[in-house]
Amino acid sequence: MKPTLADQFEVAAGIASGINRHAASIGIDSDPIARACGLDPERFGIINQRVSLDRVCRYMEALALISGDELFGLKSAAMFVKGSTGPFGYAMMNAPTLRDCLVFMGRNLQKVSETAICTLEIGPRTAHFEWTYSPLILHRDQYVDMSTAQTFNHFRAFLGDDVQQMQLELERDRPKNVNYHKQLLTRKINFRAPVNALVIPAELLNRANPNADPQLFGMMSQQMDAIELRRTDATDPVAAVRLHVAENLEHNTPTLASEAERLGMSSRTLQRRLNEAGTSMQAIIDDCRREMATRLLLETKLTLSSIGYKLGFSAPAAFTRSAIRWYAMTPSEFRQKNHAKS
């Protein structure tokens, strides 16, 4: 399967350890589906392996569709093997207090599941944790459900039923039946939020973990501290420009000057690097628009005008002209033709 821009975001393979087991429990052979999504299901059980976050998300959405269960991801968390994410999971299990667990998660979540935003603020009344993923990850409701439920399973070791005092906001659309979310997560839950967010009353932060092993927590924390965040910018400026352009088409399409400043180099140096790679700023923007247009047309039900806006076009006619150049047909014709094949 051809790599995509979204494949640059990875997740610890072990976080998906429960997906196949849950699928099997409801009579679905998920291995062929995983492979069709470009994943090797054998890697899910290997500690320290990493796989494409986008492909895991697609895999879970496909299983939710096949099973006819919009709560597939949430239910699969029950099959998750604690510790399958390696030092991250073992540290979460052995944190002495909820505060220790939250601070550790705030420092290290990006190393396990690459996020676009991951912030933790602890104030006098509440702790506020926010996270979200790259806009290139189009379908992530099932994954967010599963990973959030896994996190709440850790929190229950500290809080028991008091986990219901937490407030949770999720980006996903409101499911038809919210009872299972309220049962597995918290009754204080809202949907269609700008970012995923968790609000925890400050009085809960010093709750002790009855199963904690402080020495093991310290060892696992040290192992995670030794893992550096992947920095595409430092190793491949051209790839960094391509990714940043793709993520920002909708709001503020980057320019050569803005990208050079972001990467800490002159416009002339960046232009030379792009020339050496056989590309240009305009070519990168066009390539990103084409890839994202293809995905949005085939993988979503967004209107053509909404897609054009997300691609950074100033008017629908501009999107149509580009589509004719890319596909030799209009966007609607391209969508209809390819949907007819599937």
UniProtKB/TrEMBL annotation:
InterPro entries: AraC-type_N, Homeodomain-like_sf, HTH_AraC
TM stretches of this protein: none
Superkingdom of origin: Bacteria
Coiled coil, from the record: none
Location of the HTH araC/xylS-type domain: 239-337
Keywords: DNA-binding, Transcription, Transcription regulation
UniProt-recorded name of the protein: Helix-turn-helix domain-containing protein
Source organism: Hoeflea alexandrii
